[in-house]
Amino acid sequence: MPNAAQFHHDLALLDWHLELGVDEAISEASVNRYKLEAPASKPKPTTTPEVITPAKSEPVVFDSTPLAQACENLAALRAAMGAFEHCPLKQGARNTVFCDGNPSARVMIIGEAPGREEDREGKPFIGKAGQMLDKMFAAIGLSRHEEAPESALYITNVLPWRPPQNRDPKPEEIALMKPFLLRHIELAQPDFIITMGNPSTKTLRDTSLGITKMHGQWGEVLGIPSVPLFHPAYLLRSPEQKRLAWADLLSLKARLEGKHHA
Ligand code: URA
Fold this sequence. Notes:
By secondary structure, the chain is an alpha/beta fold. It has helices at residues 4-20, 65-69, 74-82, 116-121, 128-138, 171-188, 198-205, 211-214, 232-237, 242-256; strands spanning 100-101, 107-111, 153-157, 192-196, 219-221, 224-229.
């Protein structure tokens, strides 16, 4: 049993880590990041000097398109993403969050990235924002737990790994993972796509406009009718926007019922 001084010291250390944003233990064994490594022994001088090629100024972005396009079904895509080692976000994540709901659903929802609960459970939208999302879609008769495609939902995210401290996804992370997202859409073949919030809408609708301008504006993603909706996390913070979100949900309902006239 540690003595009281040790206990308070450890508690203060934990508090300090929380302050810094270290809010998750991602592996059973701890890593001592303060340990000093023994300095590497100096290489012996060689007689002929090595030619050092200057680094190119543009960053080399790995093109994941061939890997994504080679996947012939959703199971293969899930496996390819789980085995993909080119995105540093994966190292800090517990799970690769691939999807939830019914892949035969007419409606596919695309969010931003997993949060803490999603990272733990390996499923998208299961925290507070996810509960809000479920309520929003239940109001127009859709659910991720439904078997019938016409009342079901299929849910994924732009990124399958949680960014540290839920920071915004970086453009290079999105660029790296976008080919997998596009393949995901091609394989799921929904009738309608909902881009949930800013990053998802900007990634798929090729717009610089923010969600407050884009919400409810129908367009196409890979030839499939698509509409941006306010992210449920935003609606939790700004409940006064629920009225607009409801109008957007009703416009989706009208399309699902074939009542939309261009
Ligand atoms: N927010 C998202 O955009 N996706 C999730 O899976 C959870 C929260």
